[in-house]
Amino acid sequence: MSVPGATPVRRFRLRRPRVAAAWRQPLAVIGLSLAAAWILVAIFAPLLAPSDPLEQNAAPLLPPGGDYLFGTDELGRDVLSRVLYGARISIPLALLLVGLALLVGATLGAVAGYFGGFVDSIVMRSADLVFAFPAIILAMVVTAVLGPSIRNAVLALVIVSWPSYARVVRGLVLSIGQTEYVTATRLLGASARRALVRDVLPNVAGPVLVLATLDLGNAILLLSALSFLGLGAQPPQPEWGAGVAEGIQYFQFWWIGTFPGLAIFSVVLAFNFLGDSLRDVLDPQSSWRAGSEEE
Amino acid sequence: MSLLEVEELRVRIRGERGEVTIVDGVDYTVEEGQVFGVAGESGSGKTISVLALLQLLPRGASTSGRAIYGGRDLLRLSGRALRRVRGRELAMVFQDPLTSLHPMLTIGRQLSEHVRVHEGASKRAALARAAELLAEVRIPDPERALHAFPHQFSGGMRQRVAIAGALATRPKLLIADEPTTALDVTVQAGILRLLDRLRRESGLAVILITHDLGVMSSIADHVSIFYAGRIVESGPTKELLSTPRHPYTRALLDALPHPVDDGRADLLAIPGLPPSPRSRPAGCAFHPRCAYAIDASRVQAPPLVTVGAARLLACHVDPFASPS
Amino acid sequence: MSLVEVRELGVVYRRQGVDVHAVVGASLALERGRITGLVGESGCGKSSLARAIVGLVEPAAGEIVFDGKPLSPLRRGARPRHETRLQLVFQNPYSSLNPRRTVGSQIADGLRLRGEGERTDRRTRVGELLDQVGLSGGAAGRFPHQFSGGQRQRIAIARALAADPSVIVLDEPLSSLDASTQAQIANLLVGLTRDLELALLLISHDLAIVRHIADEVSVMYLGTIVEEGPTRELWSSPQHPYTEALIAAIPAADGSGTLPEALPGEVPDPASPPSGCRFHPRCPHAFARCPGEVPPLYALGPDRAAACFLRDPASTQTHEHEGVT
Predict the structure, then answer these.
(1) In which domain, by residue range, is A131 found?
(2) From A21, which residue of chain B is nearest by alpha-carbon distance?
(3) Residues of chain C contacting residue A12, judged by C-beta atoms under 8 Å apart
């Protein structure tokens, strides 16, 4: 039952010496530091922000500089504080949303791959159905139906993002399930379920982790897009996408939209770099890892 | 003059953990019409030492030494001169024939293209020559085979087609890297007979790389035994295999199951493992596995010296020296 | 009674909508303390037979009796405990070990699943098993990629031994190894068979190694067993033309410079086997009867049989036990 195509995934492993090698990759370092910086900002926003993000305590539409580093918006709120507080909305929500999508998708994918047949068809056809629409359009339809709110936006995005996890996990469960080491475990007397838990899932974890990291950036982007369209975060929340939308209305005051936009840009970039380097770390075929310690 | 003279060939490959010497000073000569065997276990550098001749090494590899072919040093050739030699005068067949056959083109198209590029023949003449080549490697019904695709042939037939492709440019030297390793024995025998006939009929020289001393014994005229990047023993096949002088050669032969020998002695396994190029022992690289090693073996690598007509040996001890 | 009896086994799989009969009416018996070799070239069905014998493939015909009980094919649930004493070792020690689990934990699986001992007892037992296959106990804490091919094959054997097997089927266990390592593993297998009274089925395309270590040999061609007998006799006087051709095709490393004999043609596609005797299109001795009838295995004295009309006792063509030519 050994399938030639199954071999590339078989050597995923997370081991400390490998992770250390990531430091040789400048992109990994940039991604990691940027992501870490943003997470710290999200945690310590109240300490870092000069003022309350909702407080209308200054003259409106002040340009950057002076007391207000990023200027103020049309209601006299500090743009810097709004951008810093924005991290408290986007990053935790993106984590939550990716976590939920991963949980739903991975479970369904594992179930589909394990049981096969009818269950597999149902799960995978539903995934195909979701894949048939562009993610943002489908998410818009879902939020429009459920009513615009940040909670519904997250829900909508979970609905559009679970299928990629389901596909990856199902594929891995199927291919790893046919490897000789799983067969060997079965012959030692393990049930299929036990082999799934002990031998298959640990090998699935690596690729799924990479996918999730790459997806974090994507989630932040989609979440901002929904808010930009007015379907996600509602005023006066300092959400980045909503900030960009405000900036469009006051186009001549460039700072209102640009700074939230740059925030989205840098977070998305950070998680993409991180995901890419994670893939390299976990991929035994990558060139800078060549030559493992054979005895 | 010899067809090919290799002197002091060294190949280093730069890896993640610094430079590794894969081939560590190898000399040999190949005569016209000779089947020159290169034997050794995996990691011995036997394949790399031959790929180096064609400058077909992976990136990060550096080569030193000389390989004189037709008055020129193959290791120094570049550009057009290299392509000329590589495509026309030296040809290569691999363990997996599919590496040299295009899956989407008919056999006829592939073979005739070789012929046209190298001989400037017309399309029709090239196709006729392709059919001739297929007949030469004993493909049944060559005319029909011209219209077939590689996947329509079995493993043995594909290897024949790959050999036909290598012969298309009438090379003087064919490099065959484990050409029969993936084949069944009954099919392997056919390929060996084919190589033997080509050598006899057209004076083709063959460098045959294989780990299988049985294959070596059946068609090679001369064998060099590689161990840890060096030649440890070489000589005419018959003599070398019947009276091996190096402890490694002897151990290798003792470890081989013999197809006809009767009686049921255990195979004499060589203790330990062949060293990886990364951590080759000092002195004679075989000393940790050798029952005959002396102090000198641990310190200094023995030079490859002449020990009889056309026989070379690299061993401080020479425990199996003939009494004469 | 034999530890394993394979009776008239048939294995069929579907390939592109066509039924391929990979194994047709194969019978085998494995005995305690003996190594049975099963040789044949690629596509002869030997791997299908191996998988069927351990229960990985459901037979399409015939039956497999292990230790007196019919073997049940493996389904989603755990194997019945007594059947775990029937183990398989794979060809490729790189794909048969889980890269993400330590060697010790994979070997301990066999013990755990048999419900054997406490954690510390298991650790001791893993050490013993590693020792039995010639590795140090320190290997337990390491991962498969830290070992060479030969060492990994030892680990795979240790894992099979953890199930306290009475029978081990080995599917080409030596063919991915270097010559010197091959001999080490071959000797290990012989030693284990004698010490632990195992029944071994050694499947290989390498006749020379089988000749060295097997007690009995069955020769397979295109899904059927064409000859069987004690190793030495089979080698010295092969009774089936295919066996004879196989032996003649092995090049000997004796420096004699003799070219091995080639067999014309190649193994046909098992999806459309030749009529009658499946070997007849390549057989130098084929005659009128061969394409029309399927030759049965004719018994030729104790433990010897060959499926060739030249050996038909009722036929005038019989050449009594003198070799084919």
Answers:
(1) 27-294
(2) B16
(3) 99-100
Question: Helix or strand or coil: residue A73?
Answer: coil
As a whole number of angstroms, the distance between CA B76 and CA B264 comes to 53
User: What are the per-10-residue average pLDDT scores of chain C (325 residues)?
Assistant: 92 90 94 95 90 94 94 91 95 91 93 83 93 93 90 96 96 87 92 95 91 94 95 92 92 84 84 92 93 94 92 67 45
Does the residue A228 lie in any domain? yes
Q: Which chains touch C (3 or more CB pairs under 8 A)?
A: A, B
- pTM of the predicted model as reported, rounded to 2 decimal places: 0.86
Is it the case that residue A3 has pLDDT exceeding 50?
Answer: no
C242 shares contact with chain A (CB less than 8 Å): no
CA dihedral in degrees (C145, C146, C152, C154; nearest 10)?
-160
Of C56, C81, C162, the CB nearest to A183: C56
Beta bridge partners of B208: B37, B176
Chain B contacts of C186, Cβ < 8 Å? 257, 267, 269
Rounded Cα gap, residues A9 and A214, in angstroms? 18
Nearest to B85 by CA among B63, B118, B110: B118
Check whether the bond before A260 is cis (ω within 30° of 0): no
- Chains touching A by CB (3 or more pairs below 8 Å): B, C
What is the C-alpha R_g of chain B?
21
CA C179/CA B35 separation, integer angstroms: 22
Enclosing H/E stretch for A94: helix A79-115
| 3-state secondary structure labels for all residues of chain B | CCCEEEEEEEEEEEECCEEEEEEEEEEEEECCCCEEEEECCCCCCHHHHHHHHHCCCCCCEEEEEEEEECCEEHHHCCHHHHHHHHHHHEEEECCCHHHHCCCCCCHHHHHHHHHHHHHCCCHHHHHHHHHHHHHHCCCCCHHHHCCCCHHHCCHHHHHHHHHHHHHCCCCCEEEEECCCCCCCHHHHHHHHHHHHHHHHHHCCEEEEEECCHHHHHHHCCEEEEEECCEEEEEEEHHHHHHCCCCHHHHHHHHHCCCCCCCCCCCCCCCCCCCCCHHHCCCCCCCHHHCCCCCHHHHHCCCCCEEEECCEEECCCCCCCCCCC
Give me Rg for the CA atoms of chain A: 22
pLDDT band, residue A60 (cuts 50/70/90): confident
Is A63 within a domain? yes
> Rounded to a whole number, what is the distance in Å from the CA of A122 to chain B's nearest CA?
37
CB B41 within 8 A of CB B270: no
pLDDT of residue A17 exceeding 60, the answer is no
* Angle in degrees, 0-180, between the axes of helices A255-282 and A201-228, rounded to the nearest 10: 170
Contact between C113 and C84 under an 8 Å Cβ cutoff? The reply is: yes
Contact between B280 and B214 (Cβ < 8 Å): no
**What does the block give as tokens for A21?**
């090698």
Nearest to A190 among C55, C56, C78 (CB): C78
Domain count across chain A: 1
Whether residue A142 lies inside any domain: the answer is yes
The one-character DSSP state at A74 is T
pLDDT digits (tens, 9 = 90+) for A177-214: 999 999 999 999 999 999 999 999 989 998 999 999 99
Residue A178 lies in a domain: yes
pLDDT in tens, C191-234: 999 999 999 999 998 888 899 899 999 999 999 999 999 998 99
Residues B146 and B123 sit within 8 Å (Cβ to Cβ):
no
Amino acid present at B88: R
Residue C49 main-chain phi, psi, to 5 deg: -60, -45
**In this structure, what DSSP letter does residue C221 have?**
E
* Residues B221 and B36: beta-carbon distance below 8 Å: yes
Residue closest to C227 by CA, chosen among C175, C279, C275, C176: C279
Domain containing residue A286: CATH number = 1.10.3720.10
